[in-house]
Amino acid sequence: MSDSATTERDVDAVHEDGSPERLQIDTIRTLAMDAVQKANSGHPGTPMALAPVAWTIWTKHLRYDPQTPDWPNRDRFVLSVGHASMLLYSVLHLAGVREIDADGKPTGDEAVSLDDIKQFRQLSSKTPGHPEYRLTTGVETTTGPLGQGCGNSVGMSIATHQLAARFNRDGFKLFDHDVYVLCGDGDMSEGVSSEAASLAGHLKLANLCWIYDSNHITIEGSTELAFTEDVGMRFMGYGWQVIHVDDANDTDAMDKAIEQFKACTDRPTMIVVHSVIGWGSSKAGSEKAHGEALGPDVVKATKKAYGWPEDKDFYIPDGVQDAFTRAVTDRGRPLREKWEADFKRYAETFPDLAAEFDQLRQGKMPDGWNADIPTFEADAKGVASRESSGKVLNAIAPHVPMLIGGAADLEPSTKTGLKFQGAGSFEPASYDGRNMHFGVREHAMGSIANGMALSYIRSYTATFLVFADYMRPPIRLASIMEVPTIFVFTHDSIGVGEDGPTHQPIEQLASLRCIPGLDTIRPGDANEVAVAWQVALEHTSEPTVLVFSRQAIPTLDRSKYAAAEGLKQGAYVLGDCDGDCEVILIGTGSELPLVVSAHEKLIEQGVKSRVVSMPSWYLFEKQDDAYKESVFPNAVRARLAVEQAGSMGWDRYVGHDGATITMSTFGASAPLAKLQEKYGFTLDNVVKTARDVIGKNA
């Protein structure tokens, strides 16, 4: 397929048939053109090219009720090519999707009105440049960074199977929905989509259908510059069914391809659709269509080719929206009504399961979910926080059936496996298994977990902290979407020792703490670990990072020191002195016991010391000023933070007059004791530095 525009003769032959189908398709196209042109920003080409594909999915196949867009068993429609957002906004408008608020209640408004489309890419509009979950009803996930929607869709597909295994019963098929994804050459170039597709093929996720728009155009030009592989052959190697549709305008062929997808029960499906980006424009317009407005002249010429009024903007011919809405509603509403009737009968037959699912929908934890969380006795030798985390996780998970996750091939090291009887592994023959085996696919693991979280699952992932760098895009998107994915990271510091600087995280903590809306928690002993897991699972609109150690950490004597519940405030006074303190020592994670030891020694020496445990900056910043002052009195300027990580950010808490014992270089390969001595993480150095800070502020 050529990447140049279709000729005028081709346009006349295909477009001017006057059919209701063509009117609806061309309405999608012209709305996209006009919105991008008015904003003078955006991508009109892909919406124009894929309008027939979206029309076919929505009007002929998608099980979706526009009046109830949060119906649990609806099919999911994911626009991984998020730059083509006007395709989705146009479809949501024509389908008559109704808006729901954060509590799932209808507002009475359209999800996307024509006025919203006219405000494309404008401040505070419901039609931002890339689709945003929670902002716009009908957007199933936030997309834009290419490949993320593909990864999310695998998580959504996994969730379908997990929900079916948990809730479906004889006579009650509550969950059997499909997941459709529109993706393009950019998605196929990104590594995250390859990781996700490989796992989807292994898991034989037959309800997953990616529609790949093979238009051979990227921002820089033709894909011949850098991307010439046979994508279909690659996906066949992943274990996918691959179907080709030679012309994106051939809605009959697209219809048959989707039917072929739905008939396949043992593998996911990729439909390779060949399109011409910016279909119907001049050659110059086609080249511009990928990433900018076409310009008034090209818009008019294209409308003329479509048989459209050239001087009418945002024009929807009479009957087009009614016909589109009716096509979607007439199929989706009876299915939704039947589901609701079935669920009512289900609740009478299986009241406990029905109540459990209602809690999932509301984001609530089951009753008694935290009843068995252990309390850890004081222990000078202690236990690695990854070990205590595993114990806490396995105490919680039996009470939370939809708490599901796993590691990127590192479960023996991260201790995140569910070990209780019946936990099992999620595999093609056991979709009821709760241990996910993501393989060495950290990036996809994060985006898959987000997709699971978007589908009622309390998902978690695990790997080493240094590999958070591989996962930053999905972590960031989890924060943007406000979904409660839990990201577990172990091997939290130079405590990794002999593995050396490639595996010793330095800058990762600061880079995670700076993500808005992300709660990064680094517990300092086993009892803080227990509270950290509780906090993470009680979050309903923010993701959590849990950071655990490889090496043993002493378990503090809580009869002598403050209760670990203080973690819920982010930072708390762990140990104090009589009267006003002279110095505040701040510790997190595996350094907390070191700081406690320094505090005790300073007290013995007659120094009025306070020790503060600060596992979560995020939670601390949510506290009121009075609480913050009670922990860090403004009058006490002598402050010392100790953390085996970079110093960035600690100046907020130690101030100009304080100090840090942190890492200013990468680590080294050596036993931990040698590293602690080399970089100053010793009792003597902490005490000396604390005294120096006191002297500086005398």
Kindly describe this structure:
The chain has 698 residues and is α/β, with parallel strands linked by helices. It has three domains: 8-336, Thiamin diphosphate (ThDP)-binding fold, Pyr/PP domains (Rossmann fold), CATH 3.40.50; 379-554, Thiamin diphosphate (ThDP)-binding fold, Pyr/PP domains (Rossmann fold); 563-696, Rossmann fold (3-Layer(aba) Sandwich), CATH 3.40.50. The protein is 41% helix and 15% strand. The chain has 26 helices and 22 strands. A six-stranded parallel sheet has the order 12-11-13-14-16-15, with helices on both faces. A five-stranded parallel sheet has the order 1-4-5-9-8, with helices on both faces. β11 (403-407), α16 (411-414) and β12 form a beta-alpha-beta unit. α3 (45-60) runs parallel beside α4, α8 (191-203) packs across α17 and α21 packs across α26 (683-696). The protein is elongated and about 90 Å long. It starts with 7 loop residues before the first helix and ends with a helix. The model is unreliable at 1-15 and 279-289 (pLDDT under 50).
Count the beta strands: 22
CATH class of the largest domain: Alpha Beta
Low-pLDDT segments: 1-15, 279-289
Tell me the name of the CATH homologous superfamily of the largest domain.
Thiamin diphosphate (ThDP)-binding fold, Pyr/PP domains
Alpha-beta content class: alpha/beta
Helical residue percent?
40-55%
The largest sheet has its strands arranged as 12-11-13-14-16-15
Straight-line N-to-C gap: 77 Å
Total number of helices: 26
Tell the overall outline. Answer: elongated
The CATH topology of the largest domain is given as Rossmann fold
Approximately how much beta-strand content do the residues carry?
5-15%
* Largest beta-sheet details: 6 strands, parallel
- Please tell me the overall pLDDT: 93
Query: Cα-atom Rg, whole angstroms?
Result: 28 Å
How many domains? The number is 3
**Second rung of CATH, namely the architecture of the largest domain:** 3-Layer(aba) Sandwich
